Known about the structure:
mainly alpha
Amino acid sequence: MIGGIQLPEMLLQGVDPESPEIIRLAFARGEVPMGAAERLGVLTCLAFDPSERVKNVALKSLVELEDDFLEKALTNQTLQPLSLELLLAHRPCTDKIKYELAAHPNVGEKIIRRFALSNNKKLLDTLADNQRGLTKWPEAARELLDNPALDLAVKGRLASLLTPDEPPEPEPVTSATGVKPLEPAQSSSPEPTRESSLGKPPDDRQEAAVGEDDFAGMAQAMAKFEAGDETALKEMPESLLHDAHIESDTKNVGQLIQTMSVSEKIRLATLGSKSARRLLARDSNRVVINAVIRSPKIQEDEVIAFVQDKTTADDVILYILVKKEWLKNYQVRLGLCQNPKTPIPRA
């Protein structure tokens, strides 16, 4: 099929170039009953029909589709990029339809590049939230980062999404606990620490002063935390929490997170700023995500933002569902009902 579009067997005759033209014209005019998504797929195929007459009728029908009909069609997650691009190219689209196109998981490269130039902040935010679509077209997605209208916090998150994590180099394990101790400090001029690179004076409590016992304590606390023990975070050694209070401006948070190890991300997610938690909630590591939602500093407005975001991790949604104090908030309950990650029985 054209553009990978799949149609039910009963509709294939209507788009087959070998079928009589009168049949293809009937399908192009919408004289055959079918669902909204199937109708858009049929018109996409007929827009490339070898007959100019069929092609023109199909494009005319596409332009005349009602907004309500299109909005219903766009809820179908199997629509192909060609259908979405044809729709945007040949039909005036309302902002609502543009938001649906930007949020569609099969959004194509052409639409991403076109929307990346927009000055509509809601459209840019909607597109930036479409992780599934953007990761398919990373080069087009990077054009979003050059748009000055894009919120700085969103830019940081998007930059993190489009920058693959480099695999850590294997290092020998020498501790009986299975945790590598810190290397001794070098006598030559050390590399600038993260805080000094951000223009802050070095803190006496740098990781160079952390001992093997502290790392063993961290390992044990993390293991308990992964097993579901939320109180384990309180067992983390104080020496490992020295940089967890970072309240850097949003512009630098995204860059900072990209340089962090998993344990550092957990510390920041647990005791860091709201902007840091917003970025870390999209981390690929489930332990980091769980640390975000279990942070003792998390506020109700953050919970509302999580349930309203359709890209929020499943683990976050499932945890919110068991927190009775959060479920008392109407906006939280409403967001959960409307979030596709919420299990249907609970919604």
